[in-house]
Amino acid sequence: MPRAYAGLIRRLLSALTTLLLGLTVAVPLTAWEKALSPYNFSFPEDHGSHPKYQTEWWYVTGRLTTPEDRHFGYQFTIFRQGITEQPNPAETNPWQLRDLYMLHCGLTDLEEKKFYAHQDISRAGPGLAGARENGMETWLKGSRIAWSEEKQALELRALTPDYELVLELKPTYPPILNGDRGLSAKGSRPGQASHYYSWPRLTGTGKLEMAGRSLAVHSLSWLDREFATNQLGPEQAGWDWFAFHFDDGSALMLYRMRLKKGGQDPTSSGTWIFADGRSHHLTAAEFSLIPGKTWRSPKSGAEYPLHWQIRLTEPRPLQLQIKALLADQEMQTDVTTQTNYWEGAVSVTGRDPVGRETNGHGYLEMTGYDRALGALQEPAR
Questions:
Q1: What whole-number distance in Å separates Cα of residue 34 and Cα of residue 191?
Q2: Full DSSP string of 311-353
Q3: pLDDT digit string, tens, across residues 348-368
Q4: Pairing mode, if any, of strands 236-246 and 360-367?
């Protein structure tokens, strides 16, 4: 495709996205269901789409390792953004514009110190994008994530101009419900929350094709699923989200909602997952996050903390040091969500008060550093 024509298409899609996302703000909040109380999850049905909620995503991060001990980090996310309230099923038209789907893919080559980012957007429609209800099968053009009941495995394919990643991942234990039985508060007002579950420990194999080579890979991955309606408040700037796999088989998810005036929302929370699949809900009083060394993006101008210190008091006292494995892992999303963010592979080292080490690796996501996300939902004055 000629570069000028491709640029025109990108600008048109960007304008369409802006228009349609603007229309969603005008939709009365009562037109969409909100996350108001704990959710009665049923699997595998709830791996699928929840069209009564305006926003949801299928999000996977992990580490890839080749037989030659070469390492990569990867992110794969498909977002669904509702544009109009879902119609009566009897009136369903497959070409009716109800949802936009957006794809974000990131690959961090830890040997070459290079980051590959890809984004795409499409309306829902046959052969374009969509998501099945009552079971996971979500796709955008050639990229896809699905749950196979026959294999009891998650199937993932990320197709980008730079690489193709195909994985088959099997869970170590059932999904973990975050927050209060799957109700994850993001603020103090009713509905300022999401329904949120994780599969923290997915293991499997696959292949990574890039630069004319096909690499066999083993993966340890993490799946997050959230669905909600207007979960951010106008007072919030963004969030910092952490997910770690530890060498002893345990795992940790934490997030803090940053306020525009500084500090964090008291609803910030997390989940500690034991190696056997038991979990402990962490309140904001049970952990602290201290940012350290920063890096300024030459593209967006946003300044991101790349070093962090985390202190836990529960389920056991622990101090963790977090370091980004590559500085430039910023996702530029001008064509899709138009919200730049940092999403990348990190290392984790830790020690408890008696000297026992807790080490591992994981992913860090930081949003709202170039512009406040809460402003997108702030009511007009």
A1: 5
A2: EE-SSS-EEEEEEES-S--EEP-TTTT---EEEEEEEEEEE-T
A3: 999 988 888 999 999 999 999
A4: antiparallel
